[in-house]
């Protein structure tokens, strides 16, 4: 029993030391701006280290060799990416535009396996509660969403001008993926007749054509239609 405990302790300590050294060699990106491949590498190395600690069938040589090989992959790929733009595009991909000038780029949203609700949640995390305020929203290669507000929304603040502003309130989503959010509509004191009339004003014939319709505190309905992606700004290489 004691010999088994001692052997496990030695293997665990060795695995932890090797893991620490490899993490330092791979750099801070492994714990900050993770790409999908970085994530897989981190899990694989951690799994090998854990198995080395407790599995008597795995020798020191096997465990450490496996960890070193997995750690070598991101270093090799980093070297290739730093020397070649083509390799960088193949390995890391490009940032994808999810919103352009207040309009959702539906095809990019689909490719990213994101729903409209996922996108709205990411915007709220960035303190954006009205999609109409967004100039660009980008899905970066590390999976994070970057948001650029429209110029009118990012200039001097009311505090800078010492102006007392009215509360903007939350933006209510009234249609998502062609479905009317009846509870949200009721909270605004509106009904479907009002909603359909507002859609008609924007030349929208049916709710099924709407990807997202939201109404701000100012009562203005912002409508984003399905399959109506604008020409995408494609200079993100």
Automatic annotation (TrEMBL):
Transmembrane intervals: 6-24, 36-54, 60-80
Record keywords: Cell membrane, Membrane, Transmembrane, Transmembrane helix
Origin: domain of life: Bacteria
Subcellular location: Cell membrane
InterPro entries referenced in this protein's UniProt entry, alphabetically: DUF421, UPF0702_alpha/beta_dom_sf, YetF_N
Major localization class: membrane
Domain YetF C-terminal: residue ranges: 83-214
The keyword rRNA-binding is annotated on this UniProt entry: no
Record's bilayer topology term: Multi-pass membrane protein
Span of domain YetF-like N-terminal transmembrane: 8-79
Family: Belongs to the UPF0702 family.
Protein name: DUF421 domain-containing protein
Species per Swiss-Prot/TrEMBL record: Caproiciproducens galactitolivorans
Lineage start: Bacteria, Bacillati, Bacillota, Clostridia, Eubacteriales
């Amino acid at each position: 029993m004691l010999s088994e405990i001692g052997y496990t302790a030695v293997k665990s300590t060795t695995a932890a030391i090797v893991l620490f050294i490899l993490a330092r060699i791979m750099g801070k990106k492994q714990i900050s701006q993770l790409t999908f491949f970085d994530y897989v590498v981190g899990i694989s190395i951690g799994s090998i280290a854990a198995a080395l600690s407790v599995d008597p069938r795995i020798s020191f040589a096997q465990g450490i060799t496996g960890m070193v090989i997995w750690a070598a992959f991101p270093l090799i790929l980093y070297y290739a990416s730093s020397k070649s733009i083509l390799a960088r595009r193949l390995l890391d991909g490009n940032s994808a535009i999810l919103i352009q000038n207040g309009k959702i780029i539906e095809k990019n949203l689909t490719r990213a396996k994101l729903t409209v609700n996922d996108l709205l949640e990411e915007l709220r995390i960035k303190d954006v509660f009205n999609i109409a305020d967004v100039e660009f929203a980008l899905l970066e290669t590390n999976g994070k969403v970057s948001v650029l507000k429209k110029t009118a929304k990012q200039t001097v603040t009311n505090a800078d001008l010492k102006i007392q502003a009215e509360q903007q309130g939350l933006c209510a989503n009234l249609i998502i993926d062609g479905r009317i959010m009846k509870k949200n509509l009721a909270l605004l004191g509106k009904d479907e007749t009002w909603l359909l009339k507002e859609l008609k004003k924007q030349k929208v014939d049916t709710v099924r054509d709407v990807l997202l319709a939201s109404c701000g505190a100012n009562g203005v309905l912002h409508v984003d239609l399905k399959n109506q992606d604008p020409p995408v700004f494609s200079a993100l290489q």
